[in-house]
């Protein structure tokens, strides 16, 4: 079993998402009595396109170690938002998905549902990009710049490092 954890930006890396993915992934492994074959693969990279360095390293490891039969992740969209990466994991490598927030039985219906959820993740990413570009174009038409003001913490909160 391997664990793959991903956030899409450095800004998210500074939050708690990776820590939550790690905690819940390890809880799933303990609860199900699974064996971890490698330290977690942790990535800060958008999953919209292929070419994620940590993901590629994980795929190389899995190809060299075919006895690893499954992958743990928070949800399908953490594994990828492009159908090619999902196909490599579940079609080519024949891995079993162990997902914290989703469940797909090893059946034709489970495989169909996984494919549908993966397609929705791809759609979400493409649609979000379109909406962001639309907003940026409108801002430029109105004389704005592509930069945004820095976010300040809410009153009573600190912008300093976590203890």
CATH superfamily heading: Resolvase, N-terminal catalytic domain
Q: Give me the CATH architecture, please.
A: 3-Layer(aba) Sandwich
CATH topology: Rossmann fold
Number of E-state strands: 4
Output the CATH class name.
Answer: Alpha Beta
Q: What is the CA-atom radius of gyration, in angstroms? A: 18 Å
Q: Descriptors for this entry?
A:
49% helix; 163 residues; Rossmann fold; alpha/beta; 4 strands; 6 helices
Topology:
Layout: E1 2-7, H1 10-13, H2 17-32, E2 41-44, H3 53-64, E3 70-73, H4 76-79, H5 83-92, E4 96-99, H6 108-141
Question: Summary?
Answer:
This protein is an alpha/beta fold and 163 residues long.
Task: Describe what you observe in this structure.
By secondary structure, this protein is an alpha/beta fold. It has one domain: Rossmann fold. Helix content is 49%, strand content 11%. It contains 6 helices and 4 strands. The protein is globular.
